Amino acid sequence: MVQGNQIILYEGNPLERIASSNIVLSNDRPLMEQKRLFLASDVVLGEYGVTGFVVVDNKPEDRWISYTESDEIGVKWSENDTLQFTVWKEGDPNRLSHYLNTSQGFKMIRYFILPSKVRDFFRTDRFLGEPMIDKCAREGTIPDKFDETNVNPVYAFHGEERELIDSILEHINPRFEQIGESRFSWEDFGHRVYFSFHPWQVYKPVLGFGEESVVRAIRNFDQFLSRFDEKKKLNRRDLEIEGAQEYNGFLPTSE
Protein backbone atom coordinates (compact mmCIF):
# COMPACT_ATOMS: atom_id res chain seq x y z
CA MET A 1 0.00 0.00 0.00
CA VAL A 2 1.31 3.43 -0.91
CA GLN A 3 0.95 5.98 1.85
CA GLY A 4 1.74 9.56 2.76
CA ASN A 5 2.17 12.60 0.57
CA GLN A 6 3.08 10.49 -2.45
CA ILE A 7 -0.64 10.36 -3.21
CA ILE A 8 -2.52 13.16 -4.95
CA LEU A 9 -6.24 13.37 -5.65
CA TYR A 10 -7.52 14.51 -9.02
CA GLU A 11 -11.30 14.79 -9.37
CA GLY A 12 -11.61 12.21 -6.61
CA ASN A 13 -9.19 9.78 -8.24
CA PRO A 14 -6.07 8.80 -6.25
CA LEU A 15 -2.81 8.88 -8.19
CA GLU A 16 0.70 8.16 -7.01
CA ARG A 17 3.38 10.75 -7.60
CA ILE A 18 7.09 9.98 -7.58
CA ALA A 19 8.98 13.26 -7.32
CA SER A 20 11.57 13.73 -10.03
CA SER A 21 14.05 14.55 -7.26
CA ASN A 22 13.75 10.94 -6.10
CA ILE A 23 14.79 9.69 -9.54
CA VAL A 24 17.50 12.14 -10.57
CA LEU A 25 20.81 11.70 -8.77
CA SER A 26 21.38 14.62 -6.39
CA ASN A 27 24.68 15.62 -8.00
CA ASP A 28 22.96 15.78 -11.40
CA ARG A 29 20.09 18.08 -10.38
CA PRO A 30 21.88 21.45 -10.81
CA LEU A 31 22.93 20.42 -14.31
CA MET A 32 19.68 18.84 -15.48
CA GLU A 33 18.52 21.62 -17.77
CA GLN A 34 21.98 21.85 -19.28
CA LYS A 35 21.71 18.26 -20.47
CA ARG A 36 20.28 17.49 -23.88
CA LEU A 37 17.61 15.20 -22.39
CA PHE A 38 16.15 15.40 -18.90
CA LEU A 39 13.13 14.33 -16.87
CA ALA A 40 11.04 17.51 -16.72
CA SER A 41 8.14 16.36 -14.53
CA ASP A 42 7.30 14.12 -11.65
CA VAL A 43 6.25 10.58 -12.55
CA VAL A 44 2.54 9.81 -12.10
CA LEU A 45 1.11 6.29 -11.68
CA GLY A 46 -2.52 5.27 -11.66
CA GLU A 47 -4.40 2.56 -9.81
CA TYR A 48 -3.88 0.10 -12.68
CA GLY A 49 -0.20 0.87 -13.09
CA VAL A 50 -0.47 3.12 -16.14
CA THR A 51 2.40 5.57 -15.77
CA GLY A 52 3.26 8.90 -17.39
CA PHE A 53 5.95 11.56 -17.35
CA VAL A 54 7.46 14.35 -19.44
CA VAL A 55 10.97 14.48 -20.88
CA VAL A 56 12.53 17.52 -22.58
CA ASP A 57 14.99 17.40 -25.47
CA ASN A 58 17.01 20.64 -25.53
CA LYS A 59 18.61 19.85 -28.89
CA PRO A 60 15.91 18.28 -31.04
CA GLU A 61 16.00 17.35 -34.67
CA ASP A 62 14.14 19.19 -37.40
CA ARG A 63 10.72 17.56 -37.26
CA TRP A 64 10.09 14.50 -39.42
CA ILE A 65 6.91 14.13 -41.44
CA SER A 66 6.18 10.90 -39.56
CA TYR A 67 7.61 9.01 -36.61
CA THR A 68 5.56 5.88 -37.28
CA GLU A 69 5.52 5.34 -41.08
CA SER A 70 8.78 3.83 -42.30
CA ASP A 71 8.78 5.59 -45.69
CA GLU A 72 8.64 9.02 -43.98
CA ILE A 73 11.05 8.37 -41.11
CA GLY A 74 13.81 10.98 -41.15
CA VAL A 75 12.09 13.04 -43.87
CA LYS A 76 11.89 16.66 -42.69
CA TRP A 77 9.02 19.05 -43.27
CA SER A 78 9.60 21.92 -45.71
CA GLU A 79 7.65 25.13 -46.33
CA ASN A 80 6.07 23.79 -49.51
CA ASP A 81 4.74 20.51 -48.10
CA THR A 82 1.26 21.78 -47.28
CA LEU A 83 -0.90 24.83 -47.98
CA GLN A 84 -1.57 25.07 -44.25
CA PHE A 85 2.00 26.29 -43.72
CA THR A 86 1.31 29.25 -46.01
CA VAL A 87 -1.80 30.11 -44.01
CA TRP A 88 0.07 29.90 -40.71
CA LYS A 89 2.98 31.94 -42.06
CA GLU A 90 0.62 34.88 -42.46
CA GLY A 91 -1.73 34.38 -39.54
CA ASP A 92 -0.07 32.16 -36.91
CA PRO A 93 3.74 31.98 -37.26
CA ASN A 94 4.07 30.38 -33.83
CA ARG A 95 2.12 27.37 -35.12
CA LEU A 96 4.57 27.10 -38.00
CA SER A 97 7.40 26.76 -35.49
CA HIS A 98 5.92 23.40 -34.45
CA TYR A 99 6.94 21.96 -37.84
CA LEU A 100 9.76 24.01 -39.38
CA ASN A 101 13.25 24.74 -38.03
CA THR A 102 12.34 22.88 -34.86
CA SER A 103 16.02 22.25 -34.06
CA GLN A 104 16.11 25.88 -32.90
CA GLY A 105 13.61 25.21 -30.09
CA PHE A 106 12.92 22.32 -27.74
CA LYS A 107 10.97 19.07 -27.94
CA MET A 108 8.51 17.91 -25.29
CA ILE A 109 8.16 14.14 -25.00
CA ARG A 110 5.09 12.77 -23.26
CA TYR A 111 5.75 9.15 -22.32
CA PHE A 112 3.16 6.63 -21.11
CA ILE A 113 3.72 3.05 -19.97
CA LEU A 114 0.90 0.51 -20.12
CA PRO A 115 1.40 -2.68 -18.09
CA SER A 116 1.04 -5.73 -20.32
CA LYS A 117 -2.29 -6.81 -18.80
CA VAL A 118 -3.71 -3.33 -19.32
CA ARG A 119 -2.47 -3.25 -22.91
CA ASP A 120 -4.01 -6.67 -23.58
CA PHE A 121 -7.28 -5.55 -22.01
CA PHE A 122 -7.53 -2.66 -24.46
CA ARG A 123 -6.65 -4.89 -27.38
CA THR A 124 -9.43 -7.39 -26.74
CA ASP A 125 -11.45 -5.10 -29.02
CA ARG A 126 -9.44 -4.81 -32.23
CA PHE A 127 -11.52 -1.86 -33.45
CA LEU A 128 -11.46 0.24 -30.29
CA GLY A 129 -8.29 -0.89 -28.55
CA GLU A 130 -5.52 1.23 -30.04
CA PRO A 131 -7.72 4.29 -30.71
CA MET A 132 -9.05 4.14 -27.14
CA ILE A 133 -5.51 4.09 -25.73
CA ASP A 134 -4.79 7.18 -27.81
CA LYS A 135 -8.04 8.78 -26.67
CA CYS A 136 -7.17 8.30 -22.99
CA ALA A 137 -3.68 9.72 -23.48
CA ARG A 138 -4.70 12.73 -25.54
CA GLU A 139 -8.36 13.77 -25.32
CA GLY A 140 -8.82 16.70 -22.99
CA THR A 141 -5.20 16.50 -21.88
CA ILE A 142 -3.07 18.53 -24.29
CA PRO A 143 -4.12 21.48 -26.51
CA ASP A 144 -4.69 20.56 -30.16
CA LYS A 145 -2.67 23.61 -31.16
CA PHE A 146 0.46 21.93 -29.78
CA ASP A 147 0.38 19.75 -32.94
CA GLU A 148 1.55 16.71 -31.03
CA THR A 149 2.47 13.61 -33.04
CA ASN A 150 2.43 9.91 -32.23
CA VAL A 151 5.87 8.27 -32.10
CA ASN A 152 7.30 4.78 -32.47
CA PRO A 153 10.34 4.83 -30.15
CA VAL A 154 12.02 2.06 -32.14
CA TYR A 155 12.37 4.57 -34.99
CA ALA A 156 12.81 7.75 -32.98
CA PHE A 157 14.97 6.83 -29.98
CA HIS A 158 18.73 6.47 -30.00
CA GLY A 159 21.31 5.81 -27.30
CA GLU A 160 20.66 8.83 -25.07
CA GLU A 161 16.88 8.50 -25.14
CA ARG A 162 17.02 4.78 -24.43
CA GLU A 163 19.39 5.24 -21.50
CA LEU A 164 17.26 7.98 -19.93
CA ILE A 165 14.00 6.02 -20.23
CA ASP A 166 15.61 2.89 -18.80
CA SER A 167 17.03 4.89 -15.87
CA ILE A 168 13.54 6.21 -15.08
CA LEU A 169 12.00 2.75 -15.43
CA GLU A 170 14.59 1.34 -13.05
CA HIS A 171 13.06 3.46 -10.28
CA ILE A 172 9.44 2.59 -10.98
CA ASN A 173 9.73 -1.09 -11.93
CA PRO A 174 9.05 -2.20 -8.32
CA ARG A 175 5.58 -0.62 -8.62
CA PHE A 176 4.83 -2.83 -11.62
CA GLU A 177 5.99 -5.92 -9.77
CA GLN A 178 3.34 -5.16 -7.13
CA ILE A 179 0.65 -5.90 -9.72
CA GLY A 180 2.30 -8.96 -11.17
CA GLU A 181 4.15 -7.28 -14.02
CA SER A 182 7.69 -8.02 -15.14
CA ARG A 183 10.36 -5.35 -15.35
CA PHE A 184 10.08 -2.90 -18.24
CA SER A 185 12.60 -1.36 -20.61
CA TRP A 186 12.26 1.29 -23.33
CA GLU A 187 11.90 -1.33 -26.08
CA ASP A 188 8.90 -3.17 -24.62
CA PHE A 189 5.64 -3.01 -26.51
CA GLY A 190 2.88 -1.04 -24.82
CA HIS A 191 4.59 2.32 -24.51
CA ARG A 192 2.80 5.36 -25.95
CA VAL A 193 5.08 8.23 -26.91
CA TYR A 194 4.21 11.69 -28.22
CA PHE A 195 6.44 14.50 -29.47
CA SER A 196 5.64 18.19 -29.76
CA PHE A 197 8.04 20.96 -30.81
CA HIS A 198 8.05 24.50 -29.43
CA PRO A 199 10.05 27.76 -29.49
CA TRP A 200 12.01 28.66 -26.37
CA GLN A 201 9.86 31.66 -25.46
CA VAL A 202 6.98 29.37 -24.43
CA TYR A 203 9.14 26.92 -22.49
CA LYS A 204 7.60 27.34 -19.02
CA PRO A 205 3.91 27.38 -19.99
CA VAL A 206 4.35 24.43 -22.35
CA LEU A 207 5.98 22.35 -19.62
CA GLY A 208 3.17 23.36 -17.26
CA PHE A 209 0.62 22.06 -19.78
CA GLY A 210 2.71 18.94 -20.27
CA GLU A 211 2.88 18.01 -16.61
CA GLU A 212 -0.82 18.63 -16.07
CA SER A 213 -1.64 16.63 -19.20
CA VAL A 214 0.02 13.56 -17.68
CA VAL A 215 -2.18 13.80 -14.58
CA ARG A 216 -5.29 14.15 -16.76
CA ALA A 217 -4.28 11.22 -18.96
CA ILE A 218 -3.61 8.83 -16.07
CA ARG A 219 -7.00 9.84 -14.65
CA ASN A 220 -8.57 9.01 -18.04
CA PHE A 221 -6.97 5.56 -18.10
CA ASP A 222 -8.08 4.76 -14.55
CA GLN A 223 -11.65 5.87 -15.18
CA PHE A 224 -11.93 3.85 -18.38
CA LEU A 225 -10.45 0.69 -16.85
CA SER A 226 -12.59 0.98 -13.71
CA ARG A 227 -15.72 1.31 -15.81
CA PHE A 228 -15.08 -1.48 -18.31
CA ASP A 229 -13.17 -4.09 -16.29
CA GLU A 230 -16.46 -5.59 -15.14
CA LYS A 231 -14.98 -9.05 -14.48
CA LYS A 232 -12.14 -7.58 -12.43
CA LYS A 233 -9.44 -9.22 -14.53
CA LEU A 234 -6.94 -6.45 -13.86
CA ASN A 235 -4.91 -6.03 -10.68
CA ARG A 236 -5.72 -2.73 -9.02
CA ARG A 237 -3.23 -1.00 -6.76
CA ASP A 238 -4.44 0.02 -3.31
CA LEU A 239 -3.68 3.73 -2.99
CA GLU A 240 -4.34 5.10 0.48
CA ILE A 241 -6.06 8.48 0.16
CA GLU A 242 -5.81 9.54 3.78
CA GLY A 243 -3.62 12.63 3.88
CA ALA A 244 -3.55 12.91 0.09
CA GLN A 245 -3.20 16.38 -1.44
CA GLU A 246 -5.79 17.67 -3.88
CA TYR A 247 -4.52 18.45 -7.37
CA ASN A 248 -5.61 21.95 -8.47
CA GLY A 249 -3.87 22.57 -11.75
CA PHE A 250 -0.37 22.19 -10.42
CA LEU A 251 1.37 19.42 -8.53
CA PRO A 252 2.33 19.96 -4.89
CA THR A 253 5.93 21.06 -4.63
CA SER A 254 8.40 18.18 -4.83
CA GLU A 255 10.55 17.89 -1.72
Q: Main traits of this protein?
A:
alpha+beta, nine-stranded mixed beta sheet, disordered N terminus
* Largest pleated sheet: 9 strands, mixed
- CA-based gyration radius: 18 Å
* SSE series: EEEEEHHEHHEHHEHE
Task: Give the overall form.
Answer: globular
What's the structural domain tally?
A: 1
Number of beta strands: 9
Unreliable parts: 1-5
Mean pLDDT across all amino acids: 85
Distance between the termini: 21 Å
Instruction: Output the structural class.
Output: alpha+beta
Total helical segments: 7
Strand content: 15-25%
Proportion of residues in helical segments: 25-40%
Folded structure, characterized:
This protein is an alpha+beta fold. The chain has helices at residues 83-91, 93-96, 116-122, 129-138, 153-156, 159-177, 203-228; strands spanning 7-10, 13-18, 37-39, 43-45, 51-57, 106-113, 149-151, 191-198, 245-246. The protein has one domain (4-68, 75-232, 239-246). It has seven helices and nine strands; from the N terminus they run βββββααβααβααβαβ. Strands 1, 2, 3, 4, 5, 6, 7, 8 and 9 form a nine-stranded mixed sheet that branches. β4 (43-45) and β5 (51-57) form a beta hairpin. α4 (129-138) packs across α7 (203-228). The protein starts with 6 loop residues before the first strand and ends in a 9-residue tail after the last strand.
